[in-house]
Amino acid sequence: MLLCCTSALAQTPAPDEGQNAPERPKELVFRKPVSSPIADFVVQLFREAYAQLGIQLRFEEMPRNRSLTEANNGRIAGELGRIPRLHDEYTNLVRVNFRLYESEVVMIADRRECGLCGFSTIDSFAYIGGTQSVEAVLNERAIDLPNIQVVDLAQLKLLFNNQRVDAILVNDFEAEQLNLDSDYTISVPYKRNSGYHFLHKKYAFLVPQIEAILGEMLTSGRVLEIIQENQAQIRTTPGFEQAPQFGHVRLTAGLWPEYTNPDGTGSYWDVVEKIFAPVSSQLSLQTNTFHRAYRGIDGNRFDAFVGALGQQIPTDTILSRNHIDFDSPLFLFAASDQALEQVLKGTMRQPICHVAGYDYQDLLPAQLNYYSASSQLDCFAMLDMNRMGAVISYPENAPDWTNSPYSMVKLRDAVPIYVVFQKTPRGYHLRDWFDTKFREMVRTGAIKDLYSEQMLQRAYLNLSLPDARQTPVKAPTR
Description:
Number of domains: 4
Shape: elongated
Oligomer: single chain
Structural class: alpha/beta
Strand order of the largest sheet: 3-8-4-7-5-6
CATH class of the largest domain: Alpha Beta
Radius of gyration: 27 Å
Protein name: Solute-binding protein family 3/N-terminal domain-containing protein
Largest sheet: 6 strands, mixed
Organism: Pseudidiomarina piscicola
Strand content: 15-25%
Number of helices: 15
CATH topology of the largest domain: D-Maltodextrin-Binding Protein, domain 2
């Protein structure tokens, strides 16, 4: 979804440049933004817009807090992109009425430490000082937790990676620059904002001129071209003033016994039915083999795929921000220690069997060959017949028909399980509704009517409940 710049814009004509008109500056100075698709779009947009007025732009490195003071005092020309009401506090700044972009304040945290995460489940956080959008969230929610203000994204990333703070707060387009994505990183959306350009009042005479130029660039399609050239995208939720109506919603899942049973029962089916049935004219739940379910969402035959792993989703799909569960550690099984060693060294000539739909090539040497089966039992049967060199599976799926135990080694720890949606406007809307309602179910404790205490603990959802209890867990397997 491309960044939206379709705000209503008054096409104010440039004022007459008579003898009393202020002299245009030859150069304007702004704080240099950290490079990102949105920041690069804004810089290119204003370079071109101000060039039409014969004005060049120069950018200087400085902290955000300082740039606000410098802009308000007129020592730099203004701010490129800030929250809409910035001029309420910094009264010497004049807003250019052209919505540049939309962004969202997000909390980045480790879901293993705080579940679905939020201010109630963390003890500390960090953010870049002078980020007005973040400070607005903190003020509106009256957050009084230990926190650290830093000057740039590098410091923010260092604090988080070194576990000096539980979470960080940042604008979503800046979060992309941090490259903190992992199986365990969660992005929690908060306040949505539009970005606007501001000029110091001594340049107020330029405001209607630059508004008119931006309006012409929008009408001509040049704004959209610059957005596309910089690959600026939006991944924010518009929120829901009232319950939506999605019409016929089609959901699929691979078979997870007790979680997505073929008859429509099971914990995962119960969750999505609770969330989507009230906003659907018809809700279809279809349990398939994992291969069919994966191909169904990949072929756009379903709106969502329930029970996917984060690193194993089709192209042109998006993950729910909230996980619904965690699986169990994944293992490599072989007939002998010698065969296991050959696989790990990449010298095994026989294929490595796994369930169709998942790709495990990144867990093992690149030169190995793989075979996709429709079920785990098929893999183990072919391993027993010496048709496969090894099997990638969960320990709970190993059959009990063999007289001798398999050799096995762990490939990875347990990872989150998600719901996958189509990467379309409808898909984003469905995803946002699911995330909103699932988080509400956990926050209110309603999830306890659908999940056992063991499931809540295994998925770290108990960390978001007020009365969490520690009990033994058993992970879901296919």
